[in-house]
């Protein structure tokens, strides 16, 4: 076990290097880098970009050579690309993610500021998805082929087929706009600080209902069907027939014998699903409901070519993803001791 874990940890190093190298190389060839972004914003502010004070992108044209060199030195682009890459690796080895070009904050500070929104969306989405999907999958397996199974399958697949942002728009229009039951934006009200503890809880749940609903509806279909199929596969095995032949109660057979074996692939996927609930699939929901989270931060950083934020968050998410994959494998062994790494 220890040798396997050590080998997996060592294999993470070239994986991280490969991801960072490819991303860093791509950023060197994308037009409109940080220097050009800075010059463009400066022209837009001074109104010197086009006719009538308008703005037109012209790269570094018309900029004094000395001033351009100062701007490049400000962003570290006065050094060769390979030197900047190895400097970045040295920082990441010390878990120094750098400083944002445009927000004048450390990347770690930006992540900490945006994390509460992503935690709110991720935790609610993860727990509600599994609390609905697992019992529903078990019920579908027990009633396989019945009208309940067919109707719930149709409902689950329809929910899965509707994109989250489309459902979010519909929820906003109907329940936020026409009926006015829920707020249209934000995670809390403007008078949050003046509310009592109970009022804060109610206000928070009031704001989080629509975005979480938009994320949950399409997220538990796979888990539901996986649970159902796993239970059906286990129910047909010989040990279940033997337990029934001994006269054991059906509920005891399902929950004591079948449940653990059927949920092994689902439990092993807990870490990946938990991490994915935070860092994937929330960009459009965050934008739609004006929630300033990690998804929106990553998107805006790519648009503005804020490379320290782009590469820093990519490094962090990739590292967490690799560790989560290792944890999933270890969890699978813990659930099923018959699995051996060798």
From TrEMBL:
Primary residence: membrane
InterPro entries associated with the record: MetI-like, MetI-like_sf
Lineage top rank: taxon: Bacteria
Keywords, alphabetical: Cell membrane, Membrane, Transmembrane, Transmembrane helix, Transport
Annotated transmembrane regions: 117-139, 151-184, 204-227, 262-289, 309-335
Domain ABC transmembrane type-1: 115-328
Membrane topology: Multi-pass membrane protein
Endpoints of the signal sequence: none
Location within or outside the cell: Cell membrane
PANTHER family in alphabetical order: INNER MEMBRANE ABC TRANSPORTER, INNER MEMBRANE ABC TRANSPORTER PERMEASE PROTEIN YEJB
Protein family membership: Belongs to the binding-protein-dependent transport system permease family.
Protein name: ABC transporter permease subunit
